[in-house]
C-alpha cells in the first residue's frame, strides 16, 4: 500500500511538472518580430542574423525570430522602436540604446564623446557591473530584458567637401545625425549644422547634396557604399563608440521557460561576441576605402586634443543630465582599463 501511494504521488508530481512546461510552450508565438535599423551587409545585421539562427537551432525551432531590417515595423523611425516594443508591435530589439533615448534619457549614456576611447575600454565596459548590473537594471525598468551587448564601432566623420582635421573645418557644414539631442549638441559645439533624419532619408540627401556629411562606422560606410553617394573624406576622430544591445520585451521573455530563457541569453552572448569581432576586423584597415578614392585622415595628437576639447561642454552637460552616478562608474572602469 505504501509503495502504491508513493507511486501515485510520484506520478502526480511528474504530471504537475510536465503540465506547466506544456502550457508555457503552447503560449509561444509562431514568430517573434526582431527590429533593427540596418540592412544586410553590415556587422550589426550579421550579428542579429546569427542571433536568430542560433536561437532557432538551439531551441529546436520553438523560438523563431524574424528580422525586420530598416526599422520597417515603425516605418523607418528607429526612435519609435521602444514605444512599439512596449505596445507589443515588436518583440526583440538589436540596436544601440541611443535610438530610444528620447523615451529613456539614461539610454544615451554610451553616446558621450570619448567615453570609450579604444577597444580595451570597450572590453572593460562590456565586462563591468556598470553595464551588466546598473545599466541593465535601467533597461529592465524600461520594459526590456537585456541579453547581451557588443561593440557598435567608432562613428567617424564623413563628408563630401574636404578633409576635417580640426573642429573649425566642419563649421557651417550640414551634417546628418540621428534623432539625438546630444549628437545635435556635439555638432553645434563645432559650429556645424546638425540635421536629424532616418537612414533611409539620409542616403538620398547625401546623394543629392542636401546634406554635406554624417557620422557612420567604417564597416557601414563600406556596406552601404557611402563613397558612391559622394562622400570622399573620412576623419578618424574616434569620438563616439556605442554599444549594440540584444534585448527582448519583458512580457515576451517571461512566457519562455527558464531553459529557453538561458538558451536565448547564451545565443545573444555568442552573437554579440561575433558582432564585436566583425566590427573590429572592418575597422582595422582603410585599404578598401582608399581604393575607392576615399581619403582617410588620422588627426595628429594636437588635432585630437582640439576635437576632445571642443566636445567637452556637451559631454559635461549630458553627463549631468543623463545619470551622473552611472557615467562616473563607467569612467572609472575605463580609467582602470587604461592602467592595466
What is this structure, in a nutshell?
With 340 residues, the protein is α/β, with parallel strands linked by helices. The chain contains 14 helices and 9 strands. The protein has a single domain, classed as Bacterial extracellular solute-binding protein, family 7 (D-Maltodextrin-Binding Protein, domain 2).
Features:
single chain, alpha/beta, D-Maltodextrin-Binding Protein, domain 2, 14 helices, disordered N terminus, signal, TRAP transporter substrate-binding protein DctP, DctP_fam
Beginning-to-end CA distance, first to last residue: 68 Å
SS strand fraction? 15-25%
What oligomeric state do these chains adopt? single chain
What is the CATH class? Answer: Alpha Beta
Q: Can you say what the CATH homologous superfamily is?
A: Bacterial extracellular solute-binding protein, family 7
Helix coverage percent: 40-55%
Task: Write down how many β-strands occur, each being a DSSP E stretch of 2 or more residues.
Answer: 9
The number of helical segments is: 14
Task: Give me the strand/helix succession.
Answer: HEHEHEHHEEHEHEHEHHHEHHH
| Unreliable stretches covering 5 or more consecutive residues | 1-19
Tell the overall outline: globular
Biggest beta-sheet profile: 9 strands, mixed
- Judging by the overall fold, what is the CATH architecture? 3-Layer(aba) Sandwich
Q: The CATH topology, please?
A: D-Maltodextrin-Binding Protein, domain 2
Any idea what the radius of gyration is? 22 Å
How many domains, as an integer? 1
Compute the average pLDDT: 91
* Helix/sheet category: alpha/beta
